[in-house]
Amino acid sequence: MNESINAAVYETHGNPADVLHIEKQPWPTPAADEVVVKMRAAPINPADLNQIEGKYPVRPQLPATPGFEGAGVVIELGANVKGLTTGALVILPHNIGTWRDAVAVKADELVVVPDGIEPVQAAMLKINPLTAWRLLHDYVDLQKGDWLIQNAANSAAGRGVIQIAHELGYKTVNVIRRAELIDELRAEGGDTVLVDGENLREEVKSATGGASIRLGLNSVGGDSALRLANCLAPNGTLVSFGAMSLQPLKIPTGLLIFKDLRFRGIWINKWYDNATPSERMDTFRPLFDMARRGLLKTKVEEAYPLNEVKTAVTRAAEGKRSGKIIFGFE
Q: CATH 3.40.50.720 occupies which residues in the chain?
């Protein structure tokens, strides 16, 4: 067994590229109810960068290892662990810090991934596709053929929404900032793809034949969120799960009085913590099924080794990427 592991660590909050460094740590030893998981892949999500910066609602004790998401292989079992075997591919919990070579984790907090799913894809199922699934199920009772609208449709969550909605028979209006993405998002199953702008409402009406849109998904905030709200039917619901513009939602009173819109939010880590294991699996099962059939795929721009953590987080913070930045582990 290796004597030590590498782990990304920060001792103080700040710009991720400045405060992160790689630290040698002893190889993990499992307690009786734990297993040791050797990491295979871990993505860099916006929430990871926010947490390192100190802008996230949950602050770990410092020094800390980041990484809300990741997948690895079970290589050692604690004395009392039943129902898990070595060699199993597993998804890790979000409070463990996945940016490290290996980690000891409670066996009952792991989700076992069925055969036929790449570790890299498994590593990215727990936040964005899970969020997309809950967004499409928890707020508006959608039927086949119903429309929904989302901004930042090119994000990992946005693409998850497109892929899952397409599979479930819902139609999507996908709002983006860069025209060069239109063909790609249409190819992934987006029914209508529009560039955000002042005439969005008219363009949406024209593209959907004036369809009633009862669900809007907002991860931008600011003016973009307001333009989405203006596209919604009376009694429609706008669900926010991100704030890429760093601007608050400004809602004209008329939209509340005359359209009686609902404004909701979701934080997937909170949903996950409150869900029972069977509720979690009820969500993972269809996602696993879609992933196995190649219908749910998160695009990766580049995989970096952990020792290039500064380069990786710098790239992950930049716009105009062609996919996720992840850590790949040998």
A: 138-268
Q: pLDDT for 27-41, tens place per residue?
A: 999 999 999 999 999
Homologous superfamily of the 4-124+298-328 domain (CATH): Medium-chain alcohol dehydrogenases, catalytic domain (3.90.180.10)
Catalytic residue status for 56: yes
Active-site residue (options: 10, 56, 139, 170):
56
The third-level CATH classification (topology) of the domain covering 138-268 is Rossmann fold (3.40.50)
**Whole-prediction pTM value?**
0.92
Residues (pLDDT < 50) of the chain are none
Question: Which backbone phi and psi does 208 adopt, to 5 degrees?
Answer: -105, 5
